[in-house]
Specification:
Layout (H helix, E strand, L loop, with lengths): L1 E5 L3 E3 L3 H9 L11 E11 L5 E10 L5 H7 L4 E10 L4 E8 L6 E11 L7 E11 L6 H32 L48 H8 L9 H8 L4 H17 L7 H10 L4 H17 L5 H4 L4 H6 L2 E6 L5 E5 L6 H35 L6 E6 L10 H17 L4 E9 L3 H8 L5 H4 L2 E5 L44 H12 L5 E6 L4 E7 L5 E10 L2 E8 L38 E2 L4 E3 L4 E7 L4 E9 L13 H8 L5 E11 L33 E6 L1
Parallel strand pairs: 10-11, 11-12, 12-13
Antiparallel strand pairs: 1-8, 2-8, 3-4, 4-5, 5-6, 6-7, 7-8, 9-10, 14-22, 15-21, 16-20, 16-22, 17-18, 17-19, 17-21, 20-23
Helix pairs in contact: 1-3, 6-7, 7-8, 11-12, 11-15
Length: about 700
């Protein structure tokens, strides 16, 4: 497996020429890098005007490895070849390094770049990337990989100290300015190597160098994050990471940057914020593949349910405002937002019967979205990264009524959704006044909670929370709620029993769920075996562009586009569905009359596109003729056995269980004039997005007039 590293942008608040002077002092040897033994210049050349110098060196490293491993390998030192290109006119230094020793067994490659800050020409930026590919090493591949990654991470952290040391040395000698290169000036001293994978030139973990004479007010952390982390093509700055994301190891920084870059390159939708990406990495111990999988699943879920707009569109029903005993209440001692839930006073059965699971889930999601927003605010207020919140749960009043089976089922579903889509958002859970029935509830709930999350639980029985090691250790005494013998008034509702007059039937709740779905720009439709869903689009001007974006929430379908010169009859809603069975309830519309003949009454303008469950499909079609276009989603079933004409068992069962053959699609379509379509018409070719959480496999369907992008 290839190990990769990508650094954030390290910023020196010093001019490029001064940083190069500090960089040069690391050689020919550096007492701060004991493993760097020596380096020899193999080749050197400078162009006629002296603006560009190219140097190739052979560097020797004394790698800190077990003596036995060195004896087996038969070497004492590891040699690297490094090629530096210093462009004084452009004020850049490019470094490329690769290993010479064991190059047929191990491939190490590193690139680095020093350049001028894009917003301040008196500052210097540094970036680096590296890769390690161990093909074979006498059966010690895993050991060598661990040693290499450990030492590389160590050298990255040390790089900051080294540059700061030599910048301070220059300052002590009175050297605070070096003039820029001009055509008549002499060449600057040549830079030399230093790194781990290369030789020492790599200077990772570059932070701001303290300099009392530098005016740093020109670019404060807030503006710096906006400049360096504000566009899809941006790069993360080391100071921004430390200020807003926390202290990360070099390899953790690398995972964040690489996953972020992958999303920018492959994800067609909204890119999540850096702190949110970091939560998914932490949830999977910075395993890139695992974090990418769950993050992609979550992004698909957010899009399908329009979660990004939840705070703007969701308004809590009055019954929730009156009887849901939870709310935000100041913050804890660490600056984390504090959420108070009086679970023991909550009528969970009444809320589920009055609202249904969907509304209750949406309310909990809105709480989590509000928590993310409050974390961002507190990060700015307290001047340190705050990425999670504290939850205080008061269980006084908890009894067997709270173990009502549908209520527990709703709770488990909510926990499952929150765990999957809001990982690492719970910093601490304080459970107070746990009664005897609590162990029963805990036995039911705990298997659905991630192990790392369970470690954050603190449980207090009776009044134990009032003693040493109790609530005051985590929350300031001044903001402890009054119902916990504190001094602060808490505006969380006291709850009580939901009146049975507010209960609703299952049918009413189901209709309410459909209404909530259709409040967004997306529409939902059901597709059944023998009952496709069809959408009519009338085109007046040829060369218009039909665009679509749909998600397969359930089942597999075949997507088709047809054209007809005549308008179909009004939507047909037969009382009987296929096979003479009553058609299931749902927004399912059929437009193509059974008497129509393909090729005469209507024609297919696209090749069929098979869309699997979980896929997100975006595409467009440039119309050739005016008329009526029909977008069709049709149930996709496996072809029958070709060896016999007899019906298969599955086909017979399908006639009896139509409801088992149900697909659900959520879609949005729009018609644009060709002059308004953003994108070149010549680029409208079928392609698939690499954004995939279900499968890495992709298939292509070339269409001269259409473009379909599928995300799995």
């Amino acid at each position: 497996m290839v190990q990769k590293y990508q650094s954030p942008v390290r910023v020196y608040k010093h001019p490029f020429e001064l940083v190069m002077a500090a960089y040069e002092r690391r050689f020919p040897t550096c007492h701060l890098i004991p493993m760097f033994v020596a380096s020899d210049v193999v080749e050197e050349e400078t162009n006629e005007d002296g603006s560009t110098t190219r140097v190739e060196r052979r560097c020797a490293l004394d790698v800190d490895a077990p003596r036995l491993l060195k004896r087996i390998a038969g070497v004492d030192y590891v040699y690297f070849i490094q090629k530096n290109t210093l462009n004084r006119k452009e004020r850049t230094l490019h470094i490329e390094s690769h290993n010479e020793t064991f190059s047929n067994r191990v491939i190490i490659h590193e690139t680095c770049c020093y350049s001028v800050h894009p917003e301040n020409e008196d500052w210097t930026c540094f970036e680096q990337t590296a890769s390690l590919d161990i093909k074979s090493f006498f059966g010690f591949e895993s050991t060598v990989e661990k040693i290499a990654m450990k030492q590389y991470a160590s050298s990255i952290k040390k790089g900051k100290e080294i540059i700061e040391f030599y910048l301070k040395e220059l300052e002590d000698e009175g050297i605070t300015h070096i003039p820029r290169w001009t055509p008549s000036s002499l060449p600057l001293p040549l830079p030399r190597p230093a790194s781990l994978f290369t030789s020492p030139p790599v200077l990772p973990k570059l932070a701001v160098t303290p300099d009392a004479k530098q005016d740093s007010s020109a670019l404060q952390p807030d503006s710096l994050s906006e400049i360096l982390a504000g566009t899809p093509e941006d790069k993360l700055d080391a100071d921004y990471i430390k200020r807003y994301l926390g202290d990360l190891t070099p390899l953790q920084e690398s995972c964040l940057i690489r996953l972020r870059k992958w999303l920018q390159e492959t994800h067609k939708g909204k890119i999540p914020k850096d702190e949110h990406i970091l939560r998914f990495l932490r949830a999977r111990d910075f395993n890139m593949d695992k974090a990418r999988e769950i993050l992609c699943q979550s992004l698909t879920w957010r899009k399908q349910h329009q979660v990004d707009y939840l705070l703007e569109t969701w308004s809590s029903p009055q019954v929730l405002q009156d009887y849901y005993t939870g709310g935000w209440h100041h913050h804890d001692r660490d600056g984390r937002p504090l959420y108070v839930l009086r679970l023991g006073q909550m009528d969970t059965k009444g809320l589920v019967r009055a609202l249904g699971e969907e509304s209750l889930l949406r309310h909990v999601l809105s709480i989590n979205e509000e928590g993310l927003r409050r974390c961002e605010e507190n990060t700015k207020v307290f001047g340190r990264p705050i990425s999670c919140w504290t939850c205080l749960v008061d269980l006084e009043g908890l009894n067997m009524r709270h173990l009502w089976r549908p209520g527990v089922k709703a709770l488990l579903r909510i926990i499952e959704v929150v765990e999957a889509n809001y990982p690492e958002t719970l910093g601490r859970l304080l459970i107070l006044r746990a009664p005897r029935v609590f162990p029963v509830l805990w036995t039911l709930v705990s298997p659905f909670i991630d192990e790392n999350t369970r470690k954050k639980f603190l449980i207090y029985a009776g009044n134990d929370y009032q003693g040493p090691g109790g609530l005051v250790d985590y929350i300031d005494k001044e903001i402890i709620p009054d119902f916990l013998a504190g001094e602060c008034m808490c505006e969380v509702p006291e709850g009580g029993l939901v009146p049975k007059s507010m209960y609703r039937t299952a049918e009413e709740l189901e209709n309410e769920d459909v209404r909530l779905w259709t409040e967004t720009i997306y529409q939902s439709a059901s597709i059944f075996k023998g009952a496709p869903h069809e959408l009519l689009i009338e085109i007046i001007d040829a060369s218009s562009v039909i665009t679509w974006d749909f998600d397969m929430c359930k089942g597999d379908v075949v997507f088709n586009i047809y054209h007809s010169k005549r308008a179909p009859q009004p939507p047909r809603k037969d009382p009987l569905g296929p096979h003479g069975i009553t058609s299931p309830v749902g927004n399912n519309v059929q437009l193509i009359d059974k008497s129509w003949t393909l090729g005469q009454d209507y024609s297919m303008v696209e090749s069929p596109l098979i869309c699997k469950e979980g896929e997100s499909v975006q595409g467009s079609h440039v119309t050739r003729w005016p008329g009526f276009y029909i977008l069709q989603w049709k149930f996709h079933s496996m072809p029958a056995c070709s060896a016999t004409n007899l019906p298969r068992v599955d086909d017979v069962l399908a006639t009896l269980q139509v409801s088992s053959h149900k697909c659900k699609v959520m879609f949005y379509t729009e018609v644009l004039g060709s002059e308004d379509f953003r994108g070149s018409m010549t680029s409208l070719e079928s392609s698939h997005s690499g954004f995939s959480q279900l499968s890495a496999a992709t298939t292509f369907s070339s269409q001269s007039q259409s473009s379909s992008m599928i995300s799995r």
